[in-house]
Amino acid sequence: MPENFKYVWLVFNQEKQKIDFDFAAADRMPPQTLEIRCPKTDQPVLATEKWFTFPGWPDVRCWKLIAKRTMKPEDFIPALQDGRTQMLTGFRSKQGNAFSAYLVFSAKAKKFSLAFEEKAPVKIVELKLPKPKGNRKRGTHLELGK
To answer: I want to staple 91 with a disulfide (CB 3.0 to 4.6 A). Which of 6, 48, 59, 67 is the partner?
Structure first.
């Protein structure tokens, strides 16, 4: 059992017809009130151990850790208001590689996702090669887009 949990409850999930674990202690601590205000309601943002809650979007969990990047409440405001943030840096893949991404909010699904810049498409170019000697054939070569 993880160190930061005091209790674990076994709960029978009738919908899935299986027993689930409920690590109760961390998620049931009372939320902390922050000084930053919700842009929709002008009420204070709430913080639990693992996520932020904006009163204007009470059903949305804004996770404090996304792709090994520690998020601040300010990181979520543009996504909640406009659907997407500016490019954010400091994310890390499971392999430990650094990357940048946009934080995108879907109001319909009430979830966040990451979006990436599009890479230049690969351009296929036919090259005119001198007549091959022997049995070799001419071929196409790839040229990466600039």
So the answer is: 67
